[in-house]
Design goal:
- Helix content is 72%, strand content 0%.
- α1 packs antiparallel against α3 and α2 packs across α3.
Length: 160
């Protein structure tokens, strides 16, 4: 049963990452604008982060959906969600009215203050799902089980 819970979490978190990255990928300037709007990073690295982030999101999401390197992908996922929670919380605390840029966009948003609690709650839920996958990376329907056969799993199956 726990393997199926993990499978659902893996597919949901991975799907969110793929969509978030895919929406940003065609508009690198928008992604850079969204990173810049938080006013947290030195300007010298903002363009790099803005250009690389969508690629990282798609890679992490794809690995999770496929079930390959689940623990590592979930760890990167959790760290990203933690960074986003801190970023959104910081923007909210500083009174910034910006679109989170989570699914494209970025920049000024007059309704941002009303959206921050939902965005943080969403990211906390996805962070907890990522934490589950770090704790229990073995899930059903994972390509990693086919590509990287563990000797202890083969022995258990043979002895059954």
């Amino acid at each position: 049963m726990k393997a199926w819970i993990g499978t659902v979490l893996r597919l949901v978190v991975g799907g969110v990452w793929i969509v978030a990255g895919a929406v940003k990928l065609p508009d690198p300037a928008g992604s850079v604008r969204a990173v810049r709007a938080y006013d947290l990073l030195p300007e010298s690295i903002v363009p790099t982060v803005g250009h690389v982030l969508p690629i990282v999101e798609i890679v992490v999401g794809s690995l999770l959906v496929l079930g390959v390197f689940v623990r590592l992908s979930a760890l990167v996922s959790a760290l990203l969600f933690l960074a986003f929670i801190i970023g959104i919380g910081s923007a909210w605390n500083r009174g910034l009215q910006i679109d989170c840029g989570c699914f494209g966009g970025g920049g000024f948003d007059p309704d941002a203050t009303d959206k921050y609690p939902r965005e943080i709650a969403r990211d906390v839920a996805l962070l907890l799902a990522s934490a589950w996958l770090i704790w229990r990376p073995r899930t059903a329907l994972a390509l990693g089980d086919v590509l990287f056969v563990r000797p202890d799993v083969v022995e258990v199956k043979e002895n059954s």
